[in-house]
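Progress against Task 2.4 (sequence-to-structure conversion) is shown through the following example record, which the project officer requested during the mid-term review.
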Amino acid sequence: MAVAKAACLNHISRESSDIRRLANFYKEIFGFEEIESPDFGEFKVTWLNLPGSFPMHLIERNPLTKLPEGPYSSTAAVADPSNLPRGHHICFTVSNFDSFVQSLKDKGIQTFERSLPNGKVRQIFFFDPDGNGLEVASREAP
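Structure tokens generated for the chain above:
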């Protein structure tokens, strides 16, 4: 029996040295909308919402942090999207998979594509401007 009752996703957070750049990326690529953000005083935040889905909390990175900007993947310290199927990422599903993939290519975003063996799920992996892993999947009709 689970300890939490009626658990659901509240938000996802991403830390960035440039939250405006990151906000613009998620707004342009996925259609997130900016919503009212609380004032945390000592650091900047931007709240985004993906209508019908979930909010994302972008938090200004502590300038004293010595860790790399993004996690890249669980197995590699370089930004290679082919590592993301087994690395840390957030996955979205879109209804316009082919045109979405073409838009990423038109923007010069490095991607890695694959399909699951049954062919019903196509996937594309890439990074946001801070090196956070992203996947977009399409579920095809059986």
